[in-house]
Amino acid sequence: MIHPSRPSLSLLGALITSWACAEVHAQTWCGKNYMITEPVTNPGGQFPISKTFSEPQIALRCGPAVKPYLPEDLDSTDPTFVSILVDLPVVFSNISGAIPFNRASSLSTVDVIVLVDGKELVSASVPVNASKHALPFSLSSLQPGTEAHNLTCTASLGEGEEVIGSSLLTYLPAKPNSIGSVTKMDMRSGTLLAKPPTGEDGPYGRIFPIGFYTQFEGYLDSELSISSTLKEQGFTVVHTVPPFENNTILEEVLDKMQKAGLWLMYDMRYTYMNDTSVSEQVKLIRSRPNLLLWYTGDEPDGTSDPLNATTHAQFLINSLDGGDGKGGSGYHPVSLVLNCENYFWSEYASGADVLMQDTYMIGNNVTFSSEWGTPCTVDYGDCGCDNCQGIDGVGSFKDISFRMDVFAERAFIDGWELEKVVWTVPQGFGTEEYLCSSYAFRCSPLTLPSSRYWTRNPTGEEFVVQSIVGINHGGLGVVSWDDPTTPEIKASASALALALTSGPSNMSAFILNPSSTFKQVTTTSGIDTGMWTLDRKTLLLASNMNYENTTLEAADLGLGSKGFGGGLTEVFCSGLCSAGDESVVFGSVGSGGFVFSA
């Protein structure tokens, strides 16, 4: 997470130092001029505004329930694990692949045929407006291989009309010895599936990635016991921040992570546009049993990287990681983070399976740049939180929910809702002075100025609100920038991680299960909630976005006369949470997780 005025504290070495110098003097961010001496210009790259229609439109999207499939999936006992997911949205706006739906009033179902490489794979009647409707098929009809299969789906609308969708189905061979692990994406819920990161044999489990972008030099490489501490604190993933100057030390650190049972999110931010370097790194890391996913562009939209850079890197990585390098999946997904709210979103997002957003609004004037002395608008300025609205100029938690919702909406418009998922990046930092004093030996060579974007660090409670708002708006991973962080943030993040991933009432069991039904409600009083219902029980995850006590009533959530079903069982609390039979009182920026009978 790097802004042009605040280069990473770990930028060492000639290559990265030259990059930092270039970026410090760059005069655009998200395509916008931000120096007071520069004029206001249209940055371009805005996501197209969808045209609205008076008559309904229908689209057809289809894709495999899991990416990639392996021969081991021939024996799956889950009835919809091996299936094609079908979406049949009816809308009144322009979305990818939509056509006029002239028989909307008379058709409640349509016949869908799925072809793989031109041959029928499965057919069925699918309800109009279906979402992730599963059409099971048998993998025995296909042969595993590197090349992805072409899927073509056709829905008959009657009177000779058809709507068509297409995608790719990847069915890879069993992993070779050069590949240490496999991460599957279960698109029924967006969950990552993987075997134990220790390398020991075991079944695939649903993973909720929660952790930090973690500084390697001066932190991970200086104390090898950090990995076991992070595991005890409940974190599941470590996003190692480069550079990695010494491969021997890197391997030692990654071995400790593996032994502790931590997943690796491997970062190539500084070199992802260098094919030679990417190839060398992928070949070095792909054999690790604890590799969960790859990471390429770190805010490539902010620095206006070439528009094809992320897709080129993804294809190259997949070609080295078991895939075909032409759009099919490899043995691990690829991720990146976007910082801009609206700058060539589709072009940069196309190069990842996992999209992340980093909306840093704590302690920040998001409408006037205290760093550059200019206003921040849709076509000018850099406030460290692109196009954030805030309240009276001060960053608002609603900026996070808006960004999450916008990313999901654009993925839907582009026809990617069965291909990509969104994670959230909470702000775990604040004043540059804190970071520099912690790592003075790394700040001093770069002679960094004190940042004036963020005037303070988030509190622990604010960190949790950021995280929960992201989860409630579809985030299936929480990876904060950055660690080391304040003790208060680390303690609060640990409490959330433990509640999410461990114990008999772990919250991720609701969030990640494809059988759960989900509902999101933001109350008029400013409490952001998510509800996951599974096996007649509901997980309620709620955050008070106000800096004062606020009450959440069961009636606010549209639960009807049954309300909270006789009472709430608390499974997590940050700050003040006082639960009654039909209400919860949250303190200032308080959050809680509760289970009740549905």
Topology of this structure?
Blueprint: H1 14-24, E1 28-29, E2 32-33, E3 52-58, E4 61-64, E5 66-67, E6 83-87, E7 90-93, E8 99-100, E9 109-116, E10 119-127, E11 133-136, E12 149-158, E13 161-169, E14 183-186, E15 191-194, E16 205-207, E17 210-215, H2 216-220, H3 226-232, E18 237-241, H4 247-260, E19 263-267, H5 275-285, E20 291-298, H6 309-320, E21 334-338, H7 345-349, E22 354-357, E23 368-369, E24 374-375, H8 398-413, E25 421-424, H9 432-438, H10 440-443, H11 460-472, E26 478-483, H12 487-501, H13 508-511, E27 517-522, E28 527-534, E29 537-544, E30 550-553, E31 569-574, E32 577-579, E33 583-586, E34 591-597
Parallel strand pairs: 17-18, 17-26, 18-19, 19-20, 20-21, 21-22, 22-25
Antiparallel strand pairs: 1-2, 3-7, 3-8, 4-6, 5-14, 6-11, 9-10, 9-12, 12-13, 14-15, 15-16, 23-24, 27-28, 28-29, 29-34, 30-33, 31-34, 32-33
Helix pairs in contact: 5-6, 8-11, 11-12
Question: Would you give an account of this structure?
Answer:
This protein has 13 helices and 34 strands. With 598 residues, the protein is of the alpha+beta class. It has three domains: 14-41 and 175-486, Enolase-like C-terminal domain (TIM Barrel); 52-169, Immunoglobulin-like, CATH 2.60.40; 517-597, Golgi alpha-mannosidase II (Immunoglobulin-like). The strands form nine sheets. An eight-stranded parallel β-sheet has the order 25-22-21-20-19-18-17-26. A five-stranded antiparallel β-sheet has the order 27-28-29-34-31. Strand 18 (237-241), helix 4 and strand 19 (263-267) form a beta-alpha-beta unit. The radius of gyration is 24 Å and the shape is globular. Mean pLDDT is 92; it is low at 4-25 and 433-450. This is Glycoside hydrolase family 2 catalytic domain-containing protein. Residues 1-26 form the signal peptide. It comes from Gymnopus androsaceus JB14. Keywords: Signal.
